[in-house]
Amino acid sequence: xxxxxxxxxxxxxxxxxxxxxxxxxxxxxxxxxxxxxxxxxxxxxxxxxxxxxxxxxxxxxxxxxxxxxxxxxxxxxxxxxxxxxxxxxxxxxxxxxxxxxxxxxxxxxxxxxxxxxxxxxxxxxxxxxxxxxxxxxxxxxxxxxxxxxxxxxxxxxxxxxxxxxxxxxxxxxxxxxxxxxxxxxxxxxxxxxxxxxxxxxxxxxxxxxxxxxxxxxxxxxxxxxxxxx
Length: 229
Ligand SMILES: NC(=O)c1ccc[n+]([C@@H]2O[C@H](COP(=O)([O-])OP(=O)(O)OC[C@H]3O[C@@H](n4cnc5c(N)ncnc54)[C@H](OP(=O)(O)O)[C@@H]3O)[C@@H](O)[C@H]2O)c1
Prior knowledge:
single chain, alpha/beta, Rossmann fold, eight-stranded mixed sheet, 6 helices, binds NADP nicotinamide-adenine-dinucleotide phosphate
C-alpha cells in the first residue's frame, strides 16, 4: 500500500485519480483549496465505501503549502507519491498579445510555480525511491502545433515540463522519479462538454505512473507511452 497525496483532487481528473487509487487499496490524501468543496468530495468517496483523508492546500499560497506539509509531518506521514494535479485555465486566456501580464502571471503561479512550491515543501516527507507526477498537457509540448488556444495555460505547462526535467535531475540522488503526463482532452469543468475523453481515461496514466512496479524518470507520457517534450 502506498501513501499518495493529490493536489486539486476535489473534482475532475484529480478526483478520479484519487478514486482509482483508493479502490486499489492505497492510502490517498486528497487536497484542495476550499474546505466545503473538499468535504463534498470526501462525502462522494464515503458513498462509494472508499476512505480518503483530506488536506486543505491552495497551491498558490506558499504559507498555506508549508502549513499543509507541517500537518502531515506532525502525523508522521511519509509519502510514496505526490501528484501535482491542481491547475487553472482562465476564460480570459485568449491572446498573448492582449495580456498585460496578469493572466500569464496568475496562470504560471498556480500551474507551474505552484507544483514546484509543493514539491519543495513536501520533499522532506517523500520517501527515497518515491515518485512525483506532474499533470501537464499536450498544450505544453513544443512539438505539438503551438498556438491557437489558451496561450498562458500552454506556456505554464511548457514551464511545468521544464521544471519536471530539472527536478528529475536534482532528485535522482534520492532515486525519486519525476515525470509529467498529459491526460488528453477530458470532459471536466476545465475540458468542457465537447471533450472526447472520460475522467477514467484521463486518470489512467497517472494511476499507472503511481503504481507500476518500475517507471523511468524525467519523461513525458500520454496513454502510458512516452511522448516528445
Ligand atoms: N480536462 C482536460 O482536458 C485536460 C487536458 C490536459 C491537461 N489537463 C490537466 O489535468 C489536471 C486536472 O484538470 P481537470 O480537467 O480535472 O480540471 P478541473 O476540473 O478544473 O479541476 C481542477 C482542480 O484543480 C483545483 N485547483 C485550482 N486552483 C487551485 C489552487 N490554487 N489550489 C488548489 N487547487 C486548485 C480545483 O479546485 P477548485 O474546485 O477549488 O477550483 C480542482 O480541484 C490539470 O492539471 C489540467 O491542466 C486537463
